[in-house]
Write a structure and sequence with these properties.
Structural class: alpha+beta
Radius of gyration: 21 Å
Low-confidence stretches: 1-7
Mean pLDDT: 91
Number of helices: 14
Order of helices and strands: HEEHEHHEHHHHHHHHEEEEHHEEEE
Shape: globular
CATH topology: Cytochrome p450
Oligomer: single chain
CATH class: Mainly Alpha
Strand content: 5-15%
Largest sheet: 5 strands, mixed
Number of domains: 1
CATH superfamily: Cytochrome P450
Distance between the termini: 41 Å
């Protein structure tokens, strides 16, 4: 694997044993073009539970469920202060509220949680369903589509832009920016994307700070954190992060699930036969989410620390990648096999602890609506002959293109 980050490979620090150094690059994982999560699982099986890599600035990697969940919950030792690899340039505004730890984090996160509670999501359901049906009916007569552009991006993005009351027509401008932010190989690419999104948002933010509405964006940019509302710069950072999350991650999960179902007609038929069985569909969604982990955030170690015989130093970075919980054979038997009868799918796709994803309820609802509306209209589909899905790995894994066809 070659480094795709700019600059040299990081030298091994004195406290890192040579025996724990591995050639791992989150942006260049062997086999990820065929199956991202299986490629990660191969890394998991072939390496120590915790190892160090010189790529992307040099960082530790935790590959097993127990350690990842412990690190996600222990913000005292594993801080969210910096969450991307390679590290952003010194002085880059932090991503609010993701690059904050409790108790500060909770004050900023509250309006996001309130706006995405189950009751609010239920009110959105008819809108989500309308968007899904319209997108499916548009492609149905053609017998084929490029699923990511024609559906996976349309469903969550239309819903999210309505939540923040931004024009649907702006999605063509915003999606490429979001793509560069979550999958940019260098800090410079991601920083430029953040600046572009901030430039797009600034006039809207100022308008809604002057005249707040009931939309999610108005609530975010006027958060009161006990000493008055957040500054304009903080408002831009907060809105930028939420927009990136809303524009990309659900589309990625829907893409992975559609690819899986196109390749696995047996699973597809199980879903088609039990589309009206709410409990079965809910459980099947959880199993497919487990198998297709997406988001990865790094942590900063806050103090010199011995953890399970490994010595960390304050300032070290570590990647406890979410998706490895789902592929861990210590907690999920035959983890690469999707089994709708699995008793309890164990995963960390939405994180754990204080930073668990506030959009998880909405994401699950959108996936359920996709399955119900798509499979009731297009129960039999496959990957278009002569094409190959384009998959991406990085801080957020995704499906960049997926050509499907049906009778």
């Amino acid at each position: 694997m070659t480094s795709v980050a700019e600059g040299e490979l990081a030298p091994r620090p004195d406290h890192v044993p040579a025996a724990l150094v591995r050639d791992f690059n989150i942006y260049d994982i062997p086999g990820s073009a065929e199956d991202v999560q299986a490629a990660y699982a191969a890394i998991q099986q072939a390496n120590p539970d915790i190892f160090w890599t010189p790529h992307n600035g040099g960082h530790w990697v935790a590959t097993r469920s127990d350690d990842i969940i412990a690190m996600q919950r222990d913000y005292h030792h594993f801080s969210h202060k910096h969450i991307v690899l390679p590290p952003m340039p010194e002085g880059t505004p932090r991503q609010i509220p993701l690059e904050m730890d409790p108790p500060e984090h909770a004050r900023y996160r509250r309006p996001l949680m309130q706006s995405l509670m189950p009751a609010v999501v239920s009110e959105l359901e008819s809108k989500v369903r309308d968007v899904a049906v319209e997108a499916i009916e548009r492609v149905l007569p053609r017998g084929e589509c490029e699923f990511i552009e024609d559906f996976a991006k349309i469903l969550p993005i239309h819903v999210f832009l309505e939540l923040v009351d931004l024009p649907i027509s702006d999605k063509h401008r915003l999606l490429p920016i979001a793509e560069r932010s979550v999958r940019g190989h260098t800090a410079e690419i991601r920083l430029q994307a953040q600046q572009e999104m901030g430039g797009y948002l600034i006039d809207e933010i100022r308008a809604r700070r002057d005249n707040p509405g009931e939309d999610l964006l108005s609530k975010l940019v006027n958060v009161n954190v006990g000493e008055g509302r957040i500054s304009e710069m903080e408002a831009v950072s907060y809105a930028t992060l939420v927009l990136f999350g809303g524009l990309d991650t659900v589309a990625g999960m829907i893409g992975f699930i559609a690819r899986f179902l196109a390749l696995n007609p047996g699973h597809r038929r199980q879903l088609v036969e039990r589309l009206d069985d709410e409990d079965f569909i809910k459980h099947a969604i959880e199993e497919m989410i487990r198998r297709h982990g997406l988001a990865n955030t790094s942590r900063v170690i806050t103090e010199n620390l011995e953890y399970k015989g490994v010595y960390f130093q304050a300032g070290d970075r570590i990647l406890p990648a979410n998706l490895w919980v789902g592929t861990d054979d210590r907690v999920n038997a035959d983890p690469l096999v999707v089994d709708f009868s699995r008793e309890k799918p164990v995963h960390a796709a939405f994180g754990n602890g204080a930073h668990a994803c506030p959009g998880a309820v909405l994401a699950r609802r959108e996936i359920r609506i996709f399955l119900q509306e798509w499979l009731s209209r297009i129960p039999d589909f496959r990957i278009k002959p002569g094409t190959k899905p384009v998959l991406a790995t990085g801080m957020v894994n995704g499906v960049l293109s997926l050509d499907l066809c049906w009778p």
